[in-house]
């Protein structure tokens, strides 16, 4: 009798948790509203997350939740998730293809200036030669132009304060070099 009852209770409990268990697809539905159902962000100041490095995506979600990277939009979104969710969501988006935003290639003189600045600062030491990123270092190639300009400006004012090293680097790089880098990276 007790055994039957215990089994009943277990079955009921499992059914209840299954009804509540959301799949990763359920959890990422909300993201499409801004980051795009096809991976192309709905606004130019919103970053591409399709095809971004998983380690980097995870750190951003963690930092938004902690408030280390301040965003009134992303903080409440990230706060719903625990570490395991964040890791799974990061992996989910990293597997997607990087979208082509159709941004123009930088003209030769701008590209030359950008590459000169990149070589003297040493961006490829971390972001790699084709700016594809790796692990916790983000891909920059083909990222939205307006987002790049905004987040670089935020590093410089430390409004984006989750990586002081990147802020120091951006502050040490002349503004005209950064403008050239933004055009160059967006067009890759
Ligand atoms: C209401 C719009 C909105 C929604 C919904 C939204 N995001 Fe964002 N997301 C943004 C904006 C805007 C930024 C840029 C924040 C900033 O830099 O100030 C951003 C930034 C990010 C970043 C940082 C990317 C980078 O290159 O630094 C990640 C990762 C991210 N969002 C993941 C997600 C995930 C995952 C979801 C769904 C669970 C989601 N976002 C839902 C608007 C949104
Ligand atoms: C010492 C390693 C290192 C060097 C050198 C470096 N970066 Fe970064 N960069 C990083 C890391 C790590 C991050 C991620 C920071 C975080 O977690 O928020 C980052 C983030 C960025 C982002 C934000 C991307 C996004 O999606 O929000 C931009 C833009 C960027 N770097 C541009 C540059 C440029 C341009 C240069 C050269 C002028 C450069 N970086 C040099 C390590 C580096």
From TrEMBL:
Domain Cytochrome c: 16-97, 107-188
Region forming the signal peptide: 1-21
Keywords: Electron transport, Heme, Iron, Metal-binding, Signal, Transport
Domain of life assignment: Bacteria
Name under which the protein is recorded: Cytochrome c4
């Amino acid at each position: 009798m007790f055994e039957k009852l215990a089994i009943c209770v277990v079955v009921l409990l499992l059914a209840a948790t299954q009804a509540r268990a959301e799949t990763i697809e359920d959890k990422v539905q909300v993201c499409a509203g801004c980051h795009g159902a096809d991976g192309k962000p709905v606004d130019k100041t919103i970053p591409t997350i399709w095809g971004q490095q998983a380690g980097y995506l995870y750190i951003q979600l963690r930092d938004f939740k902690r408030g280390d990277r301040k965003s009134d939009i992303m903080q409440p979104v990230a706060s719903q998730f625990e570490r395991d969710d964040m890791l799974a969501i990061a992996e989910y988006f990293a597997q997607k293809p990087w979208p082509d935003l159709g941004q123009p290639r930088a003209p030769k003189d701008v590209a030359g200036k950008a590459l000169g600045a990149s070589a003297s600062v040493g961006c490829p030491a971390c972001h790699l030669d084709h700016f594809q990123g790796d692990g916790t270092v983000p891909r920059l190639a083909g990222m939205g132009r307006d987002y790049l300009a905004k987040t670089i400006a935020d590093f410089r004012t430390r409004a984006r304060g989750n990586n002081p090293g990147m802020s120091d680097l951006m502050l040490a790089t002349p503004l005209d070099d950064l403008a050239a880098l933004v055009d160059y990276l967006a067009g890759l």
